[in-house]
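Teaching assistant's notes for section 4

Start the section by putting this record on the projector. Ask students to predict, before seeing the second block, whether Phosphatidylglycerol--prolipoprotein diacylglyceryl transferase will look compact or extended. Collect guesses on the board.
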Amino acid sequence: MLQFPQFDPIMISIGPLHLRWYGMMYVFGILSGWLLGRYRATKPWNKMTPPLMDDFITWAILGVVLGGRLGYVLFYNPSYFLSEPLKIFAVWEGGMSFHGGCLGVLLACWLFGRAHDMTFTEVGDFVSPLVPPGLFFGRLGNFINGELWGRYTDLPWAMRFPDAGGLPRHPSQLYEAALEGAVLFAVVWWYSAKPRPKGCVGALFLLGYGTFRFIVEFAREPDRQLGFVALDWMSMGQVLCLPMILFGAGWMLWAYRKSA
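Reveal the predicted structure now:
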């Protein structure tokens, strides 16, 4: 059994300025997506160019931050934030929803495409391989914050987290970092290395993320304010992943049949 390392939430202090680990994980995720995007924009089958990628990253940041925070507020704890509306802005305390951030980025892709004469699927297929590194860093941020820990287990790598009832639990944040971050990046990046039917790179991302997240949720403790929300065993994360899995699989099947 392992003991959760007590991280100092502040990564660097420069006078009155405090850079927190949680916030810096988002910075690292955005930076990795931008650098990978500039590299990917040099490939001849993309309409995106490095200067356009520099423009898009601003749209993406707004989509991730606004969508992720509003998604958490609406999907996971609306009653709390109705009673404490100013807490909506306290993002350094944690509380971001991937599904909300995904919707925010999808909206950013659509708006960016309209502004630069690109279709939604062209922008989505370009952006999808850039997302998993951000998920990797985001889950590391959850781990450092000691939040979103897993269910009780007696496995050798079980960990005692603060505020988790003193029970040994799955380090589910690290499971998600590995699957949603590292493995998903390898799969989608490899798949996107040559032209595919329109929308299929984005569809593979949705299918892969939805599947990995659905699986890991069996090891992750449901949000205490929600518990199980369907069938007495499905968490909110699993419910939100089902449309992603169905849409991703359905789109890929349709697109390959259409291109045959």
